[in-house]
Every structure is written in structure tokens, then in C-alpha cells.
Specification:
This protein folds into two domains: about 55 residues, Arc Repressor Mutant, subunit A, CATH 1.10.10.60; about 140 residues, Tetracycline Repressor, domain 2 (Orthogonal Bundle), CATH 1.10.357.10. The protein is about 80% helix and about 0% strand. It has eleven helices and no strands. The termini are far apart.
Length: about 210
């Protein structure tokens, strides 16, 4: 349990700052080494703190990991929440794809931490995956299916469409080293995300455009 959950006293500004410092350091460590490969000592070093000082704020590695996961899941789901059933389907899906790709560009550590959690069986996410995440995907799948029934986009499996968007956009964060190595110096810079956005527009939007 973290300091915030244990203490009933008001949290001071300095305590909040230390709390955020530790979480930021932990994000670096967990995203590089995974949960099992990370240690409290590594996180303390990354935060520029002693181990006893860190343990004043968080009692264990698990207590640091849990709030990071909660933040990441909330951030990761925001673009899907924003998919508007009243919007124009193709622009709505294009916006969703672009926002997911932007998140891979801007939050690569969070993406890798999320992927690592899935690979280890998602013990920190298990309940949420079967409730909040599933409920949201089901809700947005119904929106996509409604668009299909109206003839506004081509028919496909809505849930696998969402999975495919996750896979193709998050690839650019989770496998960034591979992407940059294969693209080389000329194409492996920041323009790789612009190139990816154009390709994913072509891949998804062309495939979803109703045939006349």
C-alpha cells in the first residue's frame, strides 16, 4: 500500500513531488526490465533517493507498480472512449488510429510497460481486463457494428478491427528499436510516425470504405 493510502493526514506538496518522482523513475525501470527484472534498489537509484527514503513512500515494488498500471490503462483507453458514435465513421476511425500512433510516439515507456504486463499474464490487470476494458470494447464494437449495418463502413469483425489498430499502432513503441534498425538512418527518425500514419490510413480506411 502506498503512502497515500496509509496516511489519513493531508499529503504535503513535498510528499506529492516525491511520490511523482518515484513513479517517474519506476516507469523508466519497469519499462526497461519488466516487473520481475526490476528492483527497489534500481528504482531508488533512478529517483536519486536512498532505498530507505523510497520505502517511506512505497512499501514494496508491487505498491509502486499498481498505480503506474492504473494510470497507463486509463491513458491507453482514452482514445477509444473518444470514438464518437454520432461522428462520421471513417474520420472517427482515422482520428482513433492517429491518436493511438501519437501515444506510441509520445509514451513509449508506458506502452512497453503495458505490453510487459500482458506478457506476464496481466496479474495487475486481470479484473479490469474482464470488466472495464471488455465493457468499453463491447460498447465501441456495437458503435462500429451499427455503422456497418447502416452501410457507412465495410463489414468486418469489429473487435478484431480494434485489436488490429492496437497491434499496428503500439508496434511503433514496443518494437521501436527494430523499426528504426530496419528503416535505417534516412527513414528511422521522427518522420517514421508520419510515414506510419499515412500507411495505416491507407490500410484501414481503404479497407473500411464501403464498396459501391
Amino acid at each position: 500500500m502506498s503512502m497515500d493510502a496509509e496516511n489519513t493526514k493531508p499529503v504535503t506538496r513535498i510528499q506529492r513531488e516525491k511520490h511523482e518522482l518515484i513513479l517517474e523513475a519506476a516507469l523508466d525501470v519497469f519499462s526497461q526490465y519488466g516487473f520481475r527484472g526490476s528492483t527497489i534498489d534500481q528504482i531508488a537509484d533512478a529517483a536519486g533517493m536512498s532505498k530507505p527514503n523510497l520505502l517511506y513512500y512505497f512499501k514494496s515494488k508491487e505498491d509502486i507498480h499498481a498505480p503506474l498500471l492504473a494510470r497507463i490503462l486509463d491513458t491507453w483507453l482514452e482514445p477509444l472512449r473518444a470514438l464518437d458514435q454520432n461522428g462520421d465513421p471513417l474520420p472517427e476511425l482515422q482520428s482513433y488510429i492517429r491518436r493511438k500512433l501519437e501515444m506510441s510516439r509520445d509514451f513509449p515507456r508506458e506502452s512497453r510497460l503495458f505490453a510487459n504486463e500482458m506478457l506476464r499474464g496481466a496479474p495487475g490487470f486481470s479484473d479490469v481486463l474482464h470488466t472495464d476494458l471488455k465493457d468499453l470494447v463491447d460498447e465501441k464494437a456495437r458503435v462500429i457494428e451499427k455503422w456497418m449495418a447502416q452501410g457507412r463502413i465495410a463489414r468486418c469483425d469489429a473487435r478484431h478491427l480494434i485489436f488490429s489498430i492496437w497491434a499496428t499502432t503500439q508496434h511503433y513503441a514496443d518494437f521501436d528499436i527494430q523499426v528504426r534498425a530496419v528503416l535505417g538512418k534516412e527513414r528511422g527518425g521522427e518522420t517514421r510516425f508520419e510515414d506510419a500514419a499515412r500507411f495505416l490510413d491507407q490500410l484501414f480506411l481503404h479497407g473500411l470504405t464501403p464498396k459501391k
